[in-house]
Amino acid sequence: MRVYVLRRVLYSLFILFLVSILIFALGRVLPGDPVQAVLAASRMGPVDSEVIRDLKTQFGLDRPLVMQYVIWVAGFVRGDWGVSIATGESVRAMFMHRLPITLELFLGSVLWSCIIGLPCGIASALKRNSWLDLTCTTGAIMGVSIPVFWEGIVLIYLFSVLVHVFPPSGYVPFAEDPLGNLMSVAMPTFIMGTQGAGLLSRFVRSSLLEVLGQDFIRTARAKGLREKAVILTHAMRPAMIPVVTITGLAWGYVVAGSFIVEYMFAIPGLGRMGVNAIFCNDFPVIQATLIMVALNILAVNLAVDLLYGALDPRVRVHR
């Protein structure tokens, strides 16, 4: 097991290294000059080349690309994530200020995914080919297929314009107004969790159906065990092993959807910060946001791999 854990950790670090190179390169090939974008946003009017050169020196944009990459990685490891070109703020401070908001959205979306996906998947498997199975399967396919932005527009129109149940945009901190906070994140978290719920429902259904057809399930039933005991005691654990694998993919949907959802609902989280940084070519913010997204997804997938290895010893290779 130790060899398996070490191999997965080293593999994740190697992937992170490749991702960091890709993120750095993509930040440099984006169209437009960040210094010019900052000058245009500040409405300073025409400036001479010396001012532009000083700004590039200040933000380290006049150095060779390899040197910029080394300085960025070394600073990121030390906790120095640079300074925003657009605002002049510390990127790390900007990130830490918005992190709790995004984490709240993540936790809410995972809660929605489990509340919707698990019961629907189990019900579909136990009532196979029934109207309930058809309804849950249709809902799961719709949840995976409907684009996040389209679902957001529809829900805003239904529950904010027509019915006036939830606010159309904005964020209320929990410390200021707990009820207002729940109302402000209800629709965004539901939208972010929809695709994960659809994936979870489909995989729980197929995995549970496969397990229910195994010999040990028939043996348990032949012993006279009640159906509830057969499902909960004997079928659920092996059925959840493939579902653990899909968790990493579902988490990727949640992270990607946070950028669109936060921007649509004017939520001041990391996703909105990243989108705003892209609009003004703010390299330090773009790089920090993407590298943290990559770290997030890699950490979740690493945890999934380790948990999968703990649940199923067959995946532990070459001790």
Q: Give start-end ranges of low-pLDDT stretches.
A: none
CATH homologous superfamily placement of the largest domain: MetI-like
Question: What's the multimeric state?
Answer: single chain
Assigned CATH architecture of the largest domain: Orthogonal Bundle
As a whole number of angstroms, the C-alpha radius of gyration is 24 Å
Distance from N terminus to C terminus (CA atoms, Å) equals: 7 Å
Count of DSSP strands: 0
Tell me the series of helices and strands, N- to C-terminal: HHHHHHHHHHHH
- Overall morphology: globular
Residues in β-strands, percent:
under 5%
Question: What is the CATH fold-level name of the largest domain?
Answer: MetI-like fold
SS element count, helices? 12
SS-based class: mainly alpha
Count of domain modules: 2
CATH class term of the largest domain: Mainly Alpha
Mean pLDDT across residues: 82
What share of the residues lie within helices?
Answer: over 70%
Main attributes of the structure:
319 residues; mainly alpha; MetI-like fold; 2 domains; 12 helices; 77% helix; globular
Walk me through this protein's architecture:
The mean pLDDT is 82. The radius of gyration is 24 Å and the shape is globular. It has helices at residues 2-29, 34-42, 49-58, 65-78, 91-126, 131-145, 148-162, 178-212, 215-222, 227-264, 270-279, 283-311. It has 319 residues and is mostly helical. The chain has 2 domains: 1-84 and 280-319, no CATH class; 100-268, Orthogonal Bundle (MetI-like fold). The chain contains 12 helices and no strands. The longest helix is centred in the C-terminal third of the chain and has 38 residues, at 227-264.
